[in-house]
Write a structure and sequence with these properties.
heterotetramer; A: alpha/beta; Rossmann fold; two-stranded antiparallel sheet; about 20% strand; C: Pyruvate-ferredoxin Oxidoreductase, domain 3; 4 domains; seven-stranded mixed sheet; globular; binds thiamine diphosphate; binds iron/sulfur cluster; binds magnesium ion
Chain lengths: ~280, ~280, ~550, ~550
Amino acid sequence: MSITTEKKIQWCPGCGNFGIYNAFKSVLEKNIDEGRLKKENIVILSGIGCYGYITNYYDINSFHATHGRIPPLATGIKLANPSLSVIAFVGDGDAYAEGMSHTIHAARRNTDIKLIVHDNGVYGLTTGQFTPTSPRGFKGRSTPFGNVENPINPITLMLVARATFVARGFCGDIKHLEYILERAIFHKGFSFVDILQPCVTFNDTYSFYRSRVYKLEDTDYRTDQYEKAILKSLEFDDRIPIGIFYEKEEESFEEAIRGTHNYFYERQVPDISEIVREMI
Amino acid sequence: MSITTEKKIQWCPGCGNFGIYNAFKSVLEKNIDEGRLKKENIVILSGIGCYGYITNYYDINSFHATHGRIPPLATGIKLANPSLSVIAFVGDGDAYAEGMSHTIHAARRNTDIKLIVHDNGVYGLTTGQFTPTSPRGFKGRSTPFGNVENPINPITLMLVARATFVARGFCGDIKHLEYILERAIFHKGFSFVDILQPCVTFNDTYSFYRSRVYKLEDTDYRTDQYEKAILKSLEFDDRIPIGIFYEKEEESFEEAIRGTHNYFYERQVPDISEIVREMI
Amino acid sequence: MPDISVFIGGQAGEGIKRGAMVIGKAFNRFGYHIFIMNDYGSIIRGGQDYSEVRISSVEPGSQAGFADFFFAYHKDVYERYLNRVKEEGVTFLEGAGVNQIPYERILKENNAKPFMRSSIVLGVLSYMTKLPFEIVEEVMINEFKDKAYTNIELARKGFQYVRENHFPIRPIPEGDKMPLPIMYGNDAIALGGVKVGMKVYAAYPITPTSTLLDFLAMNAKRLGISVIHAEDEIAAIMMGIGASYASAPVMVGSSGPGIDLMGEAISLSGGAEVPIVIVDVQRGGPTTGMPTYTEQSDLFLSLSIGHGEFPRIVLAPGSVEEAFEMTIRAFQYAYWYQTPVIVLSDKHLSESAKSVSIPFSEEYMLPLKYFEGGGDYKRYKLTDDGISPLAFPGMEGIVNHTNSTEHMEDGYSTAIPESVKLMKDKRIRKQETIREDFMYEENTHFYGNPDDGNLIIASGSTKGAIMESIKGLPVNFLQILTLEPFPVESVKEIMSRARNVIVVEENSTGQLADIIRSRTGVEISKRILKYDGRPFDPVVLRKDIEEVIG
Amino acid sequence: MPDISVFIGGQAGEGIKRGAMVIGKAFNRFGYHIFIMNDYGSIIRGGQDYSEVRISSVEPGSQAGFADFFFAYHKDVYERYLNRVKEEGVTFLEGAGVNQIPYERILKENNAKPFMRSSIVLGVLSYMTKLPFEIVEEVMINEFKDKAYTNIELARKGFQYVRENHFPIRPIPEGDKMPLPIMYGNDAIALGGVKVGMKVYAAYPITPTSTLLDFLAMNAKRLGISVIHAEDEIAAIMMGIGASYASAPVMVGSSGPGIDLMGEAISLSGGAEVPIVIVDVQRGGPTTGMPTYTEQSDLFLSLSIGHGEFPRIVLAPGSVEEAFEMTIRAFQYAYWYQTPVIVLSDKHLSESAKSVSIPFSEEYMLPLKYFEGGGDYKRYKLTDDGISPLAFPGMEGIVNHTNSTEHMEDGYSTAIPESVKLMKDKRIRKQETIREDFMYEENTHFYGNPDDGNLIIASGSTKGAIMESIKGLPVNFLQILTLEPFPVESVKEIMSRARNVIVVEENSTGQLADIIRSRTGVEISKRILKYDGRPFDPVVLRKDIEEVIG
Ligand SMILES: Cc1ncc(C[n+]2csc(CCOP(=O)(O)OP(=O)(O)O)c2C)c(N)n1
Ligand SMILES: Cc1ncc(C[n+]2csc(CCOP(=O)(O)OP(=O)(O)O)c2C)c(N)n1
Ligand code: SF4
Ligand code: SF4
Ligand SMILES: [Mg+2]
Ligand SMILES: [Mg+2]
């Protein structure tokens, strides 16, 4: 089953978003076809940024919402209807600047949502300003003489925030990305995937990443060791690990809050007479 | 020289804020008396919370501002006038909930401000809801059946955010707190001090902390090792380290942005004729 | 016809608010209507807080403002508020020249906590008013559960002490009202939501809206709802919008500073057409202002918050009962019209309590305009009334594309001028539909005879004090319940028959008067404004009104 | 009297906006006034963008809307915008039936990038209009520096190509205007700020305000100012308020969604009395809406944003020159009255460019009411005019307590009703002082003869198109420059003399008309509204106006 629409894809030719778009498409189509996902139970979200138009390109329930505020939006959706798979696309400006706080809080709550970050180290749509993952010295439109801030390390940050699934992908390696995305989608709890995504127009990092990335899955790295994961995540220089850094099962926020309710079906109104009686 | 006002201090008797208040008072008075600080060049800030009234109790330049937004406010002050020592008091609700993003961004910029967190694990002023540092299971007004979120570890978080001075104090040990505060104030760059502050009314943790804290300064711990600092910071159970976790010198954000300007003195208007000529 | 007020003043942390509620409940069961107002500062211990419990055989609209029984726990409180005692009132104090009550000693002897002081007060009142002590016991058992014993003991000690010391008694006969639930405005908002189907409440703590969060959190399990204390107000409303998108009826609440932060999301709700109910419990502004004091200063804000243009509805209940009712209507409007609805309360309404007879057992519908099939689902289908049928993710065969950027019927982004205009026109039609529909809704309450000369116009919690203050005066009262859509015609009509129009409100610029001017073109120069954070007292307001009408 | 328009349309990434500017600069040096409007979508590559360069011997107020020279880089653009060519216009296209220009081939032969296409266009224009090629060279050397050579080569190839192919020429005589700087509205705002003493600009990127950030960032070092791209809009304005508190004149900027987020801080600025200038470059709303298209839909928002009540000023420039001037006034007001001042621009004003004669060499004062000593410094001293003298941290002997909670003169917190009222009354006096002072400020521009019958009222960037469209019509034009304080008396006076009042604005509800009604009590039913994201074209608007005036 094809999940794409006929809308013309408007990213710059060569943009890393195509890799993400394709990987996600394959994963979804495969899992829908094989009965592991129901199309009507998938909801994809996006904030504002170049990447954000991705929701226009899939024929799937979607909410293309405001910049930086996607994690709580996703949380609310999952809270209301536990049957939904809630997959949120966000940008690095979105997730780490405007939405930094929400990203961390969603992680520490272990909300059962999937956060997929198109991390191109730049604000694409507003034409090339630095983001929190741009390196020091980055010359963007708002920092023509070089950015003076230390970049954040999203992987370490999410580990510290207690995300229960933490991974890094590279859109130049679609097969590997598909593997990660599939695992992320089926992880029960908060999944975080930071995808290294070259922006050919404002921050073309293809060759930078190509020459540096290596797969954790090709090493003897284990994904169940928290402290080791933190240390591993600090590696980001000549060699950049991609793959799954950490996985853990834990009760999700919505389960804890909502219990066994499913508000998608429930419309009945509770009996409040006891509560009213207590007020007499 | 006394730096206090006659305003009646309105914290609950026994509140941990008194310890912070007194430690800060001693440090300031000593350093003013000994000529290392000029009173008119000190600015203290606070957001909204029980702790926030602290600015009422010192006869020092102050800005008692909105909840959660203190780090950027402090950044602006330091940017405008490099001679000022900008010391910001914040609550844990303030710093880690409403203001989480600002706290992290101020850290990674290495803005030359001092962030002092009254970390009582609860929203005092709104009468006892959990905060991001409350333990799982915490029964507050908004979580009468127990909080279901994983607490953050402020120390690890600030290390990951690249703060250049990271410390934890305990307001039950005023001498040690004075030592930390003094070092924090004189650190050049972003200083972060999380102070364990029992709230006798809503979260009385005196004996919990008393039986657990130990001083890093009493061990052979060194404050210049980044990875070790991260690992050390993860220790928060039967033993809770207090003291300075990490220190490093680096150019501050304001220096990088402002250069040698001091807008407190500078009022002249630049010559824009060259720029205008380029538009012809 | 007893109409008695009890004042208890002391420091934060001395259990004044709780005590006032227990006293209220006791007299409620003794057959009286109750109104409780709480005046407290923004600190946790210390300060000078007080509550007034009004006990009346006629339903009261507000505090009396002046006390028959005046209990001050400390000298400073005594002195500060002595002007709130009626001429014939009785005052009590620990250790001063007046009727002394040895609270400290009694507490100590009973190993009780300082916040149990008011149980002593209730004992004193029981003796002095001849309120049967069984009622005191009964209420305390209900209220304090396993801690009832100590409190009953304290009450008994209070009772004995004043009897032994021959305090003058002031008997109140048993009243004839049935015991009613006593609830805060915030409780009524909460229960209104629940009764109409609310499943999610999300908020960030803020006075004076926290009590709404706390009440719902405490009862979440019993009500089968989800209550979220989010990391900030933006997260709270975004969670709300998410849950609403996924079909759950949702409310969020905050006060001024937090409402400001919700502006962007309110615009999202309006433009993406995802319903949400927003409660703004107003407090003293601007900025942090006076967090625990009342004000009606977000009227314009509620009409304009959120950039760009979209349909919105703003409702302003004037009493605890109306808080219940208007919250229900807020949900009905939000989910029918798929747009944000703001309920404007204020600290005085939300944190005062009243014995109420509310039809809790009735059923309240939450009708939705559902998609009925027939072709592909289009989230933003162009319809005559501007309302597009709803379908939710999870429904088979449905693809719901909700979009914050300007979009076509199918929900996909567009910026083509012709398409944009179509969608904007659709939203305008929706606003017009709302305006038309509201002609048939209850937008105002009118009290009096329209052809009399003097007319007071007000909105929100001032209603109670106004109704009390105009009793017996040749003054009519028009209460505005819906600020948007504004009932232009009916307000104009009623104003045109009045000789003298006076707007009464609790802010410093006369926002309601300005709104009336902006909607009707009529300038109202007679304005009674109060903006010191305290609600109008009916007696004082009556004088103000008398002065204005001359 | 030449009045020629050049249309260049293609995809994002093909250098259209830059090219339009270069063409504009060339004709500017050839003695003409220039107006450039840019129409682009919210994507980085692809789409159908265009710019119009208007070249006129009479100062133009807006784009013409219809082109004499129409360059379409692609067939779809050609087809979509063909209706924007004048009857007598010439059209050009790559590879279609009309005048063909082989852009691709020329680019390839010269090893040039796609975004250099418009240099070919300038060459074509040089031949066709007889614009001296030396001017083309001169402008390109200035503009492209070390990349000038390639661009000049491209222009030469364009020139040769049309000459060799005998395209019909349409000579334009040399104009007699002195070359002037061509600047965007955002540049003018930036320079206005700088000229009046701005030292800090803080923002978060957002279309169409990012260009203000980018311009200032690019020039920060030369201007000696600090420019911050903060983590979000709330941080940006809080940094601004911090810097302002510490004595630096500050501006922040955003558009709808980001302005919404600033509401809480705007209330802080108003209540704590820390000056700040806020630029709102409006775009198509609500919510994300149409980020790159124009709209005037934040009028009510700017008047009400931020909870509670505090003095504020809202200014609405109508041209690039006024953008400069009103920004200067915004700073003067903000720092004199110590309160937030909002400058309302919009995409059309901020991202259109114009050759301007602005008195850049003049000096612009930024007067402050300084504390002059004499006793302890009280940040919120009660004064007759409501303005308390300023002193900054770092000044010897001064202690400045700035406070967001309600406070006393010395800046310490209070919630005592009497003290609260004193401080609120002080802020009201300040608002009154502002209103009185503004009677003597320039609040409106009036064009025409007040006793003629037809009157158009508008505000903001619609001015340009209106001025053009009413030329020769029996219509006067009243431009409102200050939305708050609103010039009630003068607007009333001018309206009272008109037979026919028409409000022209770019939004879907008629916000300006509603504001006029709310301030003057006069309902204006004749409204010409446009809300498809595109600015009025003067020719089309003229027809609308003719229709309305009958
Ligand atoms: C509240 C708000 N602020 C700013 C913007 C403007 N804006 C749109 S996209 C964007 C940056 C997007 O960057 P990123 O998230 O990295 O996505 P990318 O374009 O790189 O894919 C910004 C700042 C907005 N839409 N809303
Ligand atoms: C925007 C905004 N949201 C909410 C509040 C309400 N509020 C006041 S204090 C406070 C919590 C304070 O908690 P914390 O920062 O931990 O300080 P503490 O009271 O514990 O000292 C909150 C939520 C506010 N003032 N502003
Ligand atoms: S600007 Fe960058 S991120 Fe945006 S579409 Fe182009 S290549 Fe992709
Ligand atoms: S509530 Fe807690 S934090 Fe607040 S003053 Fe009391 S003890 Fe201190
Ligand atoms: Mg990006
Ligand atoms: Mg706290």
